[in-house]
Amino acid sequence: MNDVDIVAVSRNLVSTHFTGTMPTNGVPWTEIFSRIEQKLQADPRYQGKWTREDKCIRLNAGIKVDIVPAVRVGDANADPIAIYSFRASRERKNWPRSHFDAGAVKSGRTNGAFKQTVRLFKRWSRCWFSNRKIAPSYYLECLVYAQPDAIFSGSLARDFVAIARSIGQMQYGLSILPRQAGEGNLLAPDEWGYAEFVQFQRTLQSATSYANAATAAYSEVQAKSSWVAAFNGHQPT
């Protein structure tokens, strides 16, 4: 939506963690990452423009591109696949094709409002958090996806307020945040940590009061001022 994600699946490598099989040609994850990094470094267009992150190789060549190395769990052309987190020192299942398909269906059911709303929440997050770990874009997309279709009215301003209020009522440890596609609850210590989620939620709750004031404003000047306050001194778009 705001950048490009590429999942690079090594078809000849199988996740031993999720299949319990003996590796036929075991290759460490550092080597899997290095193979892609070497190709980038050898290309004059990308040389020196990449960094290794927790689960991906981030390329900044005008457009931000996250390249996610992966290995297959079953069929290389089917989900799930396995990716690796250096921070957690373990493999994770991922469902990129199913995630894309689910988002496309949701967007169709909401006349495109779903994707537009996700973009708005990602914009809001970038305005408030320089640390991407506080509100990762994947979790934001899943939060918006979890909202009922009826909440998407087609008015981005009203939808932002309604969804922000819904998120503000979630309780860590009690509320469930499912993946857009796949398994598990994202409101868990090994996913979206408690401290990070609470910081995100409290900041959003504070911003919601300004956003609500913007939708109820009697003048364009008042509305714009409130929206800028909701987006930490920035324009929403």
Can you give keywords for this protein?
8 helices, alpha+beta, single chain, six-stranded mixed sheet, 237 residues
Using only C-alpha atoms, the radius of gyration works out to: 20 Å
Secondary-structure element series: EHHEEEEEHHHHHH
Number of domains: 2
DSSP strand count:
6
The share of residues in extended strands comes to 15-25%
* Biggest sheet layout: 6 strands, mixed
Shape designation: globular
Global mean pLDDT: 92
Class derived from helix and strand content = alpha+beta
State the share of residues found in helices, binned by percent. 40-55%
With helices defined by DSSP (H or I, 4 residues minimum), what is the helix count? Answer: 8
Q: Quote the distance from N terminus to C terminus.
A: 14 Å
**Low-pLDDT ranges:** none
Task: Give a description of the structure.
- The chain is α+β, with helices and mostly antiparallel strands and 237 residues long.
- It folds into two domains: 4-94, no CATH class; 98-230, no CATH class.
- It is built from eight helices and six strands; from the N terminus they run E-H-H-E-E-E-E-E-H-H-H-H-H-H.
- Strands 1, 2, 3, 4, 5 and 6 form a six-stranded mixed sheet that branches.
- The chain starts with a strand and ends in a 7-residue tail after the last helix.
